Amino acid sequence: MHKKPSVFGGACIIASVCVGAGMLGLPASGAGAWTIWSSLAMILTMVVMTFSGWLLLEAYQDFDPRVSFSTVTKNVLGQEINWINNMAVYFVGSILLYAYTTSSGSILNDLMSPIVSLGEYGSRIWSAIFVLVFSFFVWHSTRLVDRISVVLIFLMLATFFMSSYGLVGNIDVTTLFDIHAKNSQYAPYAIAMLPVALTSFGYHHSVASMRAYYQEENKAKYAILGGTFIALVFYLIWIIGIFGSLPREQFPAIIAKGGEVGDLLNALSGIIESESIKKTINLFATFAILSSFIGVGLGVFDFLADFFHIDNSRVGRTKSWAITFLPPLILSICYPLGFLKAIGYAGAIATIWTCIIPAMLVYKMRQTQGKRAFRVWGGTPLLYIVLIFGVLVFIFHFMAMFNYLPVFKE
Prior knowledge:
Layout: H1 7-18, H2 26-29, H3 34-60, H4 69-77, H5 79-112, H6 122-140, H7 142-168, H8 173-176, H9 187-199, H10 207-214, H11 217-243, H12 251-256, H13 261-271, H14 275-307, H15 314-334, H16 339-369, H17 379-401
Helix pairs in contact: 1-11, 3-9, 3-11, 3-16, 3-17, 4-5, 4-16, 5-6, 5-14, 5-15, 5-16, 6-7, 6-14, 6-15, 7-11, 7-14, 9-16, 9-17, 10-11, 13-14, 14-15, 16-17
């Protein structure tokens, strides 16, 4: 008799999918909102994104356990909507690869400059080296990615806890709650944080895997809830640790440079006296970016190989590698916009397949199929809440981009 998989195990899988390099953008994106309003934005996003994942479970229940997101969308909403959905999935994956490539170059350049100085193009050169070295794991095989990912997740979690412990021990309550604030506005800035917050809970491509893992919807439902809650705890600890250590007035300079992870780490280095904590935070950032880069890279690689019907030979995998990694690398070298902007774009477009499509799928299926065995609580009002949240986050990103939302400058 086979032992049934535990809900906790599935929750850990969902949490590991959520927690990654995206959390490195949270402090800069939430600096205007600061501790309380950033935390509220994260809690709201976690709740909505949990419900949207449950909606996908409801939509999947009449299909084979190993069905894909694309197949369900095509069957229920049609080929045109499915094409938009697939393009959104590809765009988010590619923009995340672009963000990780850009940030890796910045971090590696700072780390290696005392040893090897590459001048004004140092970050771009290190970005190219990073991609060429670490994309090899994806080109080689999924099995190798699996093995290296386990190691990276362990290292990321270990350095996260060590970093958080050091940061929490360094917290100044005056700094954490911005008691001597020059700018006492917080709530308006929370709106602009939502696209980055949404990216931090982007696990929806794994919902089908959870259903196949448990062979039922109810256990998958609680695994998703457990996973998003674990991720939320990680994010709140990270936000509180950073905001309790680094004064709010130091963030405008970081944001002005594009919210680069390297600039955040350099600012922390100027505040934290312990060399071991500084090194651990740098290691955590490196492992988080590398883990996310390889994980997202594999997803985009497999998506494009399937989309273009490229075979799994060495030549075929080289073609898939080229169309997966070279466009983000070229964009990173030519247009290094910054980590925060890229994550914001990813969050805006991700609303399509994390909020809008799940609500549309369930609405259509409830209209045509009536009462079903697994049904998410909340009825039609919940569908509208998830849909409207997705649309608003999409709009908020472009409002911020065109300066229709307040930008934290001082």
